[in-house]
Amino acid sequence: MEGRGRPHGRSLTIAATVALGVVVAIPTLVGFGGRRAEAPSQSPGSSRASASRTIDSQPPAGTASPRAPAAGVSPPPPTPSPKPPAGTSGAARAGGPSFRTVRLTLARLTPAQLPYQGARPVSLSSPPYPTDSRGVRVVIRDGKAHYAPVQLAQQGLELVDAFNQTGKRAYLDVARRVAGQLVLRGRSFSNGLFLTYDFAFPMHGRSSEVLRAPWYSGMAQGLAASFFVRLARASGQPGFLRTAGLVMRAMENLRTRDDRAWVSTVDSLGYLWIEEYPLDHDHTLNGYLFALFGLYEYWLATGSGAAKSLLAGGVAALRHYVPQFRNVGAISAYCLRHRVQNAKYHRIHIWQLRFLGRITGDASFSSMSKAFAADFS
After folding, report:
1. Considering only CA atoms, which of 125, 172, 167, 127 is closest in space to residue 37?
2. What one-character-per-residue DSSP string does 165-192 give?
3. Closest Cα to residue 321, out of 278, 293, 283?
4. Each residue of 117-127: b (16+ CB within 10 Å) or e?
5. 254 three-state secondary structure
């Protein structure tokens, strides 16, 4: 990784757009597909998907655990351990300080074995969410339409899956437009493409904790990496894979290296976190796992050592921290900062941990998935 340098988001956006091999037009935000534009709930992700392709998009609102701390009060950090826990080995570097890793032998799954697929193909004429005039998904905030990276990546994954099921090129056409809009959301820092949110977002609806624009999400980076990898394969256009590399490199940019744009950070115990929300010690579980799955898909497609190193850091961190998300006999915590509980996300945790165990061969994740399911299902 290179040094800090000045941001040059415009130049990288143009370069990445050229790599995509598409011309990106700026659409007008009129006519919201087949659905009237409405303000989304705190959790606007698809509810019609099966568990294996359900994707979180926002934190749940109004579902605080009875054991949750008061608003604005963070739980105390864990007590530092004097030595690395069993199972960790060495350290990796991602353009900054070292983080704990594990020795990792990854399974090589086929495209058909990956998540986010198999649901009924989405309708292009009447999609279940608002869109712009070119069929690209938007979200409504305070009466205004915005492009949100997580929702764009979700739509892209749906469209590629629909193309794979039906062979209809119209799905790929819209998927390319979604890809172009994601690139337009990108800002360049330290050779990575950070996908930008241009609206404020109150965490769990709390006015005391508001993410101010521009902000970035590790979950968005991971889902977008998965989308670009799959779009490259479906379309036969390698430029999309190069764009996936730019998205992946943003996750290498650790917070202490360049605090202007980050989704990855190393905590006081030396563990890597890829944060869904760029807040101190937020540690949202499902967003971290979606980020790791994007790294895994990029590694599958390219053999990237950098992606595997980040994966090894993520596995080390989750081996240590996943038990802290568990509430024995109850719904797991959405994040460690607020310990909000929500049944939908608990079920997402169950399949995510099962999938992580499958790709890493780590039985501890499979066992924890079963424990979560026994706690609440």
Report:
1. 127
2. HH--HHHHHHHHHHHHHHHHTEEEETTE
3. 283
4. bebeebebeeb
5. strand
Least confident of 27-31, 205-209, 316-320: 27-31
Cβ atoms of residues 104 and 308 within 8 Å: yes
Query: H or E stretch including 18?
Result: helix 9-20
The CATH number, out of the four listed (1.10.10, 1.50.10, 2.60.40, 3.10.590), of the domain defined by the range 85-375: 1.50.10
Predicted confidence (pLDDT) per residue in 265-314, tens digit: 999 999 999 999 988 889 999 999 999 999 999 999 999 999 999 999 99
Q: What is the pLDDT of residues 196-236, one digit of tens each?
A: 999 999 988 888 888 999 999 999 999 999 999 999 999 99
Q: Among all chains, which residue has been given the structure tokens 């950090």?
A: 77
Closest of 43, 33, 38, 36 to residue 143, by C-alpha? 38
Residues 19, 22, 23, 26, CA torsion sign = negative
How many Å apart are CA 38 and CA 292, to the nearest integer?
32
What is residue 57's three-state secondary structure? coil
Q: Tell me the backbone φ, ψ of residue 194, rounded to 5 degrees.
A: -95, 125
Number of H helices, E strands in the chain: 9, 10
pLDDT of residue 31: 34
Strand partners, 99: 92
Least Cα distance to 300 among 221, 232, 219 occurs for 232
* Identity at 311, one-letter amino acid code: L
Element (H, E) at 201: strand 201-202
Placement of tokens 């460690």 in the chain: 336
Q: What are phi and psi of 201, to 5 degrees?
A: -140, 115
Q: Where are the domains of the chain?
A: 85-375
Residue 5 pLDDT grade (very low, low, confident, very high; cuts 50, 70, 90): very low
State the helix-helix crossing angle for 343-360 and 305-325, rounded to 10 degrees.
Answer: 130
